[in-house]
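Re: that backbone. C-alpha coordinates:
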Protein backbone atom coordinates (compact mmCIF):
# COMPACT_ATOMS: atom_id res chain seq x y z
CA UNK A 1 0.00 0.00 0.00
CA UNK A 2 1.44 3.35 -1.05
CA UNK A 3 1.10 6.80 0.51
CA UNK A 4 2.76 8.83 3.22
CA UNK A 5 2.77 7.80 6.85
CA UNK A 6 0.13 9.77 8.73
CA UNK A 7 0.59 8.09 12.14
CA UNK A 8 4.09 7.21 13.33
CA UNK A 9 5.37 6.04 16.69
CA UNK A 10 8.83 5.01 17.81
CA UNK A 11 9.41 3.31 21.14
CA UNK A 12 6.17 4.79 22.46
CA UNK A 13 5.76 3.83 26.12
CA UNK A 14 3.28 4.74 28.85
CA UNK A 15 3.76 3.73 32.47
CA UNK A 16 1.55 4.28 35.46
CA UNK A 17 3.95 3.93 38.40
CA UNK A 18 5.28 0.36 38.05
CA UNK A 19 2.59 -0.71 35.56
CA UNK A 20 3.44 -0.52 31.83
CA UNK A 21 0.27 0.08 29.82
CA UNK A 22 2.03 0.46 26.45
CA UNK A 23 5.52 -0.91 25.93
CA UNK A 24 7.92 0.32 23.25
CA UNK A 25 5.30 0.66 20.50
CA UNK A 26 6.66 1.29 17.01
CA UNK A 27 3.94 1.70 14.43
CA UNK A 28 3.43 3.32 11.02
CA UNK A 29 0.06 3.82 9.39
CA UNK A 30 -0.37 5.19 5.89
CA UNK A 31 -2.71 7.88 4.67
CA UNK A 32 -6.03 6.43 3.48
CA UNK A 33 -5.51 3.10 5.23
CA UNK A 34 -8.19 1.25 7.21
CA UNK A 35 -6.24 -0.11 10.16
CA UNK A 36 -7.71 -2.52 12.71
CA UNK A 37 -6.34 -2.25 16.25
CA UNK A 38 -7.08 -5.46 18.15
CA UNK A 39 -6.56 -6.83 21.61
CA UNK A 40 -8.34 -7.88 24.80
CA UNK A 41 -9.44 -5.42 27.46
CA UNK A 42 -6.41 -4.03 29.24
CA UNK A 43 -4.12 -4.61 26.26
CA UNK A 44 -3.17 -0.93 25.96
CA UNK A 45 -5.42 0.05 23.04
CA UNK A 46 -7.21 2.88 24.82
CA UNK A 47 -4.00 4.25 26.31
CA UNK A 48 -2.44 4.28 22.84
CA UNK A 49 -5.44 6.15 21.47
CA UNK A 50 -5.25 8.71 24.29
CA UNK A 51 -1.61 9.38 23.40
CA UNK A 52 -2.53 9.81 19.74
CA UNK A 53 -5.21 12.34 20.69
CA UNK A 54 -2.96 14.29 23.06
CA UNK A 55 -5.09 13.37 26.07
CA UNK A 56 -2.26 11.70 27.98
CA UNK A 57 1.50 12.15 27.72
CA UNK A 58 3.88 9.31 26.86
CA UNK A 59 6.42 8.29 29.46
CA UNK A 60 8.97 7.91 26.68
CA UNK A 61 9.21 7.51 22.92
CA UNK A 62 7.89 9.54 20.01
CA UNK A 63 4.53 9.93 18.30
CA UNK A 64 3.48 11.99 15.27
CA UNK A 65 -0.11 12.25 14.07
CA UNK A 66 -0.69 14.04 10.78
CA UNK A 67 2.78 15.53 11.15
CA UNK A 68 2.08 16.90 14.64
CA UNK A 69 3.28 16.04 18.14
CA UNK A 70 0.10 15.43 20.18
CA UNK A 71 1.84 16.26 23.45
CA UNK A 72 2.97 19.69 22.30
CA UNK A 73 0.14 20.51 19.88
CA UNK A 74 -3.05 18.91 21.30
CA UNK A 75 -5.37 21.63 19.99
CA UNK A 76 -4.03 21.34 16.46
CA UNK A 77 -4.43 17.55 16.70
CA UNK A 78 -8.12 18.03 17.53
CA UNK A 79 -8.49 20.08 14.34
CA UNK A 80 -6.96 17.27 12.27
CA UNK A 81 -8.64 14.16 13.70
CA UNK A 82 -12.13 12.92 14.51
CA UNK A 83 -13.02 10.50 17.28
CA UNK A 84 -16.15 8.36 17.52
CA UNK A 85 -16.45 6.68 20.94
CA UNK A 86 -18.45 3.52 21.55
CA UNK A 87 -21.33 5.47 23.08
CA UNK A 88 -21.96 8.62 21.08
CA UNK A 89 -23.38 11.61 22.96
CA UNK A 90 -25.82 14.07 21.40
CA UNK A 91 -28.35 16.66 22.51
CA UNK A 92 -31.44 14.49 22.29
CA UNK A 93 -33.86 17.42 22.28
CA UNK A 94 -32.22 18.80 19.13
CA UNK A 95 -32.53 17.41 15.62
CA UNK A 96 -29.62 16.00 13.61
CA UNK A 97 -28.91 19.19 11.70
CA UNK A 98 -28.90 21.27 14.90
CA UNK A 99 -26.48 18.84 16.56
CA UNK A 100 -24.10 19.01 13.60
CA UNK A 101 -24.32 22.80 13.38
CA UNK A 102 -23.46 23.06 17.07
CA UNK A 103 -20.34 20.92 16.52
CA UNK A 104 -19.40 23.00 13.48
CA UNK A 105 -19.61 26.20 15.51
CA UNK A 106 -17.46 24.68 18.25
CA UNK A 107 -14.88 24.08 15.53
CA UNK A 108 -15.21 27.70 14.32
CA UNK A 109 -16.67 26.73 10.97
CA UNK A 110 -18.80 29.58 9.54
CA UNK A 111 -22.51 28.75 9.13
CA UNK A 112 -22.43 29.44 5.38
CA UNK A 113 -19.79 26.73 4.99
CA UNK A 114 -21.15 24.26 7.52
CA UNK A 115 -24.73 24.36 6.19
CA UNK A 116 -23.69 22.96 2.83
CA UNK A 117 -21.30 20.49 4.41
CA UNK A 118 -23.92 19.26 6.89
CA UNK A 119 -26.42 18.51 4.11
CA UNK A 120 -23.76 16.58 2.20
CA UNK A 121 -22.86 14.56 5.27
CA UNK A 122 -26.47 13.76 6.14
CA UNK A 123 -26.94 12.42 2.61
CA UNK A 124 -23.72 10.43 2.83
CA UNK A 125 -24.74 8.67 6.07
CA UNK A 126 -28.33 8.15 4.90
CA UNK A 127 -30.02 10.50 7.37
CA UNK A 128 -31.06 13.40 5.15
CA UNK A 129 -34.75 12.47 5.24
CA UNK A 130 -34.67 12.10 9.04
CA UNK A 131 -32.59 15.22 9.69
CA UNK A 132 -35.55 17.14 11.17
CA UNK A 133 -36.35 14.51 13.80
CA UNK A 134 -35.21 14.83 17.40
CA UNK A 135 -32.09 12.72 17.91
CA UNK A 136 -33.69 11.27 21.05
CA UNK A 137 -36.01 9.31 18.73
CA UNK A 138 -33.12 7.80 16.74
CA UNK A 139 -32.21 4.12 16.83
CA UNK A 140 -28.74 2.97 17.84
CA UNK A 141 -27.74 2.57 14.20
CA UNK A 142 -28.98 6.04 13.28
CA UNK A 143 -27.06 7.55 16.19
CA UNK A 144 -23.88 5.77 15.09
CA UNK A 145 -24.29 7.07 11.54
CA UNK A 146 -24.93 10.56 12.87
CA UNK A 147 -21.75 10.13 14.91
CA UNK A 148 -19.81 9.51 11.69
CA UNK A 149 -21.27 12.70 10.25
CA UNK A 150 -20.30 14.56 13.41
CA UNK A 151 -16.64 13.55 13.26
CA UNK A 152 -16.53 14.48 9.55
CA UNK A 153 -17.91 18.00 9.98
CA UNK A 154 -14.40 19.43 10.44
CA UNK A 155 -13.05 17.38 7.51
CA UNK A 156 -10.43 15.41 9.46
CA UNK A 157 -7.55 13.55 7.86
CA UNK A 158 -7.86 10.71 10.40
CA UNK A 159 -10.85 9.22 12.21
CA UNK A 160 -10.57 7.01 15.28
CA UNK A 161 -13.53 4.64 15.71
CA UNK A 162 -14.10 2.70 18.91
CA UNK A 163 -16.47 -0.27 18.46
CA UNK A 164 -18.60 1.53 15.83
CA UNK A 165 -20.95 -1.44 15.20
CA UNK A 166 -21.61 -2.59 18.77
CA UNK A 167 -25.34 -3.02 19.35
CA UNK A 168 -26.31 -2.68 15.69
CA UNK A 169 -28.59 -5.10 13.85
CA UNK A 170 -27.22 -6.83 10.71
CA UNK A 171 -28.54 -4.16 8.36
CA UNK A 172 -27.15 -1.36 10.50
CA UNK A 173 -23.82 -3.16 10.76
CA UNK A 174 -23.52 -3.56 6.98
CA UNK A 175 -24.37 0.10 6.45
CA UNK A 176 -21.72 1.16 8.95
CA UNK A 177 -19.04 -1.08 7.42
CA UNK A 178 -19.80 0.25 3.93
CA UNK A 179 -19.63 3.79 5.29
CA UNK A 180 -16.26 3.17 6.93
CA UNK A 181 -14.84 1.74 3.72
CA UNK A 182 -16.11 4.73 1.74
CA UNK A 183 -14.18 7.11 4.00
CA UNK A 184 -10.95 5.47 2.87
CA UNK A 185 -11.78 4.76 -0.77
CA UNK A 186 -13.67 7.93 -1.68
CA UNK A 187 -12.24 10.55 0.68
CA UNK A 188 -8.75 9.14 1.40
CA UNK A 189 -9.38 9.45 5.14
CA UNK A 190 -7.29 7.22 7.38
CA UNK A 191 -9.49 5.04 9.59
CA UNK A 192 -8.09 3.69 12.86
CA UNK A 193 -10.61 1.10 14.03
CA UNK A 194 -10.69 -0.54 17.44
CA UNK A 195 -13.09 -3.48 17.68
CA UNK A 196 -13.62 -6.90 19.26
CA UNK A 197 -15.78 -8.02 16.32
CA UNK A 198 -13.07 -9.74 14.33
CA UNK A 199 -15.25 -10.94 11.46
CA UNK A 200 -16.14 -7.33 10.69
CA UNK A 201 -12.53 -6.18 10.98
CA UNK A 202 -11.52 -8.87 8.51
CA UNK A 203 -14.02 -7.54 5.96
CA UNK A 204 -12.81 -3.95 5.81
CA UNK A 205 -9.27 -3.53 7.16
CA UNK A 206 -6.17 -3.25 4.99
CA UNK A 207 -3.94 -4.23 7.91
CA UNK A 208 -4.32 -5.08 11.57
CA UNK A 209 -2.19 -4.76 14.67
CA UNK A 210 -2.62 -7.03 17.70
CA UNK A 211 -1.85 -5.65 21.16
CA UNK A 212 -1.50 -8.00 24.14
CA UNK A 213 -0.34 -6.90 27.60
CA UNK A 214 0.91 -3.59 26.28
CA UNK A 215 2.97 -5.10 23.46
CA UNK A 216 2.34 -5.05 19.73
CA UNK A 217 2.75 -8.76 18.99
CA UNK A 218 1.73 -8.71 15.32
CA UNK A 219 1.10 -6.25 12.51
CA UNK A 220 0.45 -6.61 8.80
CA UNK A 221 -2.10 -7.53 6.13
CA UNK A 222 -4.37 -10.32 7.36
CA UNK A 223 -3.32 -12.67 4.55
CA UNK A 224 0.34 -12.31 5.54
CA UNK A 225 -0.40 -12.94 9.21
CA UNK A 226 -2.38 -16.05 8.28
CA UNK A 227 0.53 -17.38 6.22
CA UNK A 228 3.04 -16.60 8.94
CA UNK A 229 1.12 -17.87 11.95
CA UNK A 230 -1.17 -20.56 10.51
CA UNK A 231 0.67 -21.57 7.34
CA UNK A 232 -2.50 -21.24 5.25
CA UNK A 233 -3.35 -19.37 2.07
CA UNK A 234 -5.96 -16.70 1.45
CA UNK A 235 -9.53 -17.79 2.11
CA UNK A 236 -8.65 -20.70 4.40
CA UNK A 237 -8.64 -18.90 7.73
CA UNK A 238 -10.50 -16.42 9.91
CA UNK A 239 -9.03 -13.43 11.70
CA UNK A 240 -10.26 -14.97 14.95
CA UNK A 241 -8.04 -18.02 14.35
CA UNK A 242 -5.02 -15.78 13.81
CA UNK A 243 -5.84 -13.65 16.85
CA UNK A 244 -6.29 -16.64 19.16
CA UNK A 245 -3.00 -18.14 17.99
CA UNK A 246 -1.12 -15.02 19.03
CA UNK A 247 -3.15 -14.68 22.23
CA UNK A 248 -2.39 -18.21 23.40
CA UNK A 249 1.33 -17.80 22.75
CA UNK A 250 1.78 -14.77 25.00
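Recovered sequence:
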Amino acid sequence: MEGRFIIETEGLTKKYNSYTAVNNLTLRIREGEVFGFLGPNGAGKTTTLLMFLGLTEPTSGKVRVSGLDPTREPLRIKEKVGYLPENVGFYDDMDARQNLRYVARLNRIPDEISSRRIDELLKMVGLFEEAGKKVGTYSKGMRQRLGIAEVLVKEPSIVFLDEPTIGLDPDGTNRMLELIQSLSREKNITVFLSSHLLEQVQKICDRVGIMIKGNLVAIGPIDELAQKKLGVEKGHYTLEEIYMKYFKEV
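The first helix runs from residue 45 to 52. The chain has a mean pLDDT of 92.
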